[in-house]
Amino acid sequence: MTETLTCFKAYDIRGRIPDELNTDIAYRIGRAYAEKIRPQAVVVGRDIRLSSDEIATAVSCGLTDAGVTVYDIGLCGTEEVYFATFAYQAYGQAMDGGIMVTASHNPKDYNGMKLVRESSKPISGDTGLQDIQQLAESNAFSAPASQPGRTVRVDIADAYTQHLLSYIDTHRLRPLKIVVNAGNGAAGHVIDSLEAALPMFEFIKIHHEPDGHFPNGIPNPLLPENRGSTAAAIIQHGADLGIAWDGDFDRCFLFDECGHFIEGYYIVGLLATAFLKRFPGAKIVHDPRLTWNTIDLVSGLGGIPIQSKTGHAFIKERMRLEDAVYGGEMSAHHYFRDFSYCDSGMIPWLLVAALMGDSGKTVSQLVADRIEAFPASGEINRVIARPATVLEKVRRYYADTAITVDVTDGLGMEFADWRFNLRCSNTEPLVRLNVEARGNRTLMQAKTADLLAMLAD
User: Fold this and answer.
1) For 63-119, how does the pLDDT look when each residue is reduced to its tens digit (9 = 90+)?
2) How far apart are alpha carbons 91 and 87 in whole angstroms?
3) What percent of the chain has pLDDT above 70?
4) Domains in the chain, please, with CATH?
5) CB neighbour list of residue 145: distance below 8 Å, 6 or more residues apart
6) I need a labelling partner for 279 at 20 to 30 A (CA). Which of 55, 83, 107, 110 fits?
7) Measured between alpha carbons, how far is residue 24 from residues 20, 21, 64, 233, 239 in Å?
8) Can you tell me the distance from the alpha carbon of 66 to that of 149, in angstroms, rounded to the nearest whole number?
9) Three-state DSSP class for 100?
10) Could you give the residue ranges of the DSSP H alpha helices within 198-227?
11) For 413-443, b where at least 16 C-beta lie within 10 A, e where not — what string?
């Protein structure tokens, strides 16, 4: 009898422990991954959640029972699994895939997995995840391998740290005082490794120790209520920069020297500028939620802006197709060609620190002109019973006055001096609203209020 596994989502695996995800399900996922992807060597890592060790052990057993050799990198962030998968070789054997056990910023009684194949190519709904789900649900596997695989513990810390440092010229960095907030997630050990190589930086570490109990709350700095401790530490210590991460640190969030949170949208433009100076004429991929600042900067520097549907699988696929040097989402996911087109939460802040050194500017000075030129609402979420109906109502209301209508992802409508994107969540009865304007914050705020009123109705 086939069991429905609700932990499989559009891009990854997430579920409540133990009813939606447990060691039995994790074992079956490992077996199904092995039979569908047919790897010989797979990287496995885990975040700091209390259930992560047992889930990682179970998925590793599923792999080894199918004859796969598991290279266990232990406690880590998602990008360390990405790095090990595309960069690590053992005994001349390249890695054929990777599995990261994490639930990122979900509540502490959740866990999950992110799956990749060779070169850290994502495995999502239509690129193999559904096949893995169906086999795991059926629990109808081939006989175990006559020669089981083994689990080998490996340490990638030095190689990974050196790769991160390759994105910057350490000799051009200037002394900075930096607040780093790991949120009791997995980022702390990477900062400790970088600290030895970056003596010009003074790190003020808060919520630094990994703790799956999350004594200071679930690490998700995208939520305004989770930003206070970082901002306060910046003010208290007179820091030049603040950085906070989510639990598996595939996203980083930046704060300026005044403790102000910087929307990820403006960091996309900043990093695009940095890459275009190094790679003139390069292609830059961006998501459709907020676009004008990115398009203006990229086009102005002779680059080629390319819009992709929101979501890591879509961004990575488009970047590979276009050979784009960098891709960015306003949600603080940043993707890099030299990182096998994967997202990293460490490379962005290193690049920003390098820009501060080269320009002599503060963080606020680096983004102030762009915030003024293209003021944005930031993403606003609303619970809506029938989101598709609401999107159609909004489309009809603005249809006669819109200059362009874009349905790449949700509903995007542009006017002479402002635009918006309204999209449905893949997993919840939510709509997500983003509004921006050309140099007119008052207009942006007024249009945001109008749209929110329509959503409320």
Assistant:
1) 999 999 999 999 999 999 999 999 998 777 899 999 999 999 899 999 999 999 999
2) 13
3) 99
4) 13-156 (3.40.120.10), 176-255 (3.40.120.10), 264-349 (3.40.120.10), 380-456 (3.30.310.50)
5) 65, 66, 67
6) 83
7) 11, 8, 15, 43, 47
8) 7
9) strand
10) none
11) bbbeebbbbbbbeeeeeebbbbbbbbeeeeb
393: phi > 0 → left, psi -120 to 50 → alpha, else beta; which?
Answer: alpha
CA nearest to 41, candidates 75, 73, 1, 80:
73
How many other β-carbons are positioned within 10 Å of the β-carbon of residue 406?
Answer: 16
pLDDT in the model for residue 396: 97
Poorest-confidence range of 262-276, 309-323, 379-393? 379-393
Residues marked active site are found at 104
Q: Which of 79, 112, 107, 90 is nearest to 40 (CA)?
A: 90
Give the number of C-alpha atoms closer than 13 A to the C-alpha of residue 409, restricted to the C-beta side: 22
Return the SS3 of 238: coil
Judge if pTM exceeds 0.90.
Answer: yes
Structure tokens at 78: 């998602």
3-class SS at 242?
A: strand
Beta strand segments in 139-289, E:
151-153, 176-181, 201-206, 241-245, 252-255, 283-286
Query: Which residues 6+ apart lie within 8 Å of 275 measured at CB?
Result: 282, 284, 325, 326
Q: What are 221's two structure tokens?
A: 């700095």
DSSP characters over 125-155: IIIIIHHHHHHHHHT-PPPPPSS---EEE--
